[in-house]
Amino acid sequence: MPAFSSVFDEKSDEVREILARVRCPSVQRLQELLAASGGAPLGLLELAELLEIGRTREAVEQFETLRSFVLERWRKPAGNRVRYVAPIYVSSFCIDTCAYCNFSASRKAAVRRRLTPGDLGAEIEAVLERDARVVELVYATDPEFTTDRHVRYVGQLVEALRNEPGSGALLCTGHLSREAYAALREAGLFGIVQWDETLDPRAYDRWHAASPHKRAFRERMDNHERAMAAGLEVATGALFGLADFRYDALMQIAKARHFVSEYGRGPFVFGAPRLKPIAGHELHPETEVPDRAYETILMVYRMAAPETGRWLQTRETFALNLRNLLDGDVYTYRCGEVRPGGYHRGNGDAPVARDGQFGVNELEREFVERELAAQNFRIDYAWTGNRVQPAARASST
Ligand code: SF4
Fold first, then answer.
1. CATH architecture under which domain 79-380 falls
2. Which end of the chain has the lower number of beta carbons within 10 A, N or C?
3. Which atom of ligand 1 is nearest to the CA of 357?
4. Which residue, by CA, sits nearest to atom 2 of ligand 1?
């Protein structure tokens, strides 16, 4: 099957051409777009119009109209569900040098750790005790983790999950080969998580040209499809703040639609991370994405692919997440402090700001469940096999 890289240049040109001429819709034009969204899926041009609402200061009425529409369509009066994923950080040793990440090899002062199988067992036990049954093993680009070692760690997690209904093992690593994914699938892996960071080649180079593994732009771009070819589910997404958010959102949608046309299924979720402070230092690139633009991206993702959730998580505040959660989204309120061993913080450990991957807002379960229940949401801790059900009026891609 032709991989996304084979159509990348054509799609990228199409998106750039759209962005050169798109305008923010008037209130009347927005009503036309919303009415049309109940039929055939909106095209990239129409979705680009919606994205303009996020960056046009005067488009306050359009933004509120769009929000009302999305909430009305994808938040039911009762019985909304969000799916929980528990990330376990396994290693913070990295050969790559992404300037937005505290695990970068360039950050010599960062405190690093690599979990042994015994440490991993303790972390798995901690998340299972909290009822999580979909667990993601998260790695930096650590050369000590060969395919065999990944297979052993995934096997350990799969064994602990005991094939319970709705359980699943996810993996977030540097890009791997198709053979590696076949072996991981054989070991019981459910799916992979990869944020493409940005699909803008120039911006990608600016941030990653010095990274020995990650600089392979096209090889990394096709990583999801090597995993899909091995039978795995995938999560894709951009890291917003590295490039023009409109380009990255549209290219992610184009990529998800490519998956559907080639594999008959899209990603199970769009990741929606934004740049956050590292080790307490704020990052403010020119392409920084303000809240209004960010929330518009979330709405456009749902309108573009109603069957694909968005992954809201602890990088953002709870208030922002609560405003934006929709039925079927993935939601994580604890990320193990985005550091190896984070579910077992000891008294002598470095503070999160120093050794976590980036700044997060970790929350307690009781608080989150109470607040979500007040908005008619419940958290599903064992959900694999249940993909998002599009709302009755929603279109599918
Ligand atoms: S984002 Fe990933 S690859 Fe880049 S420095 Fe951080 S851990 Fe390493």
1. Alpha-Beta Barrel (3.20)
2. N
3. 6
4. 140
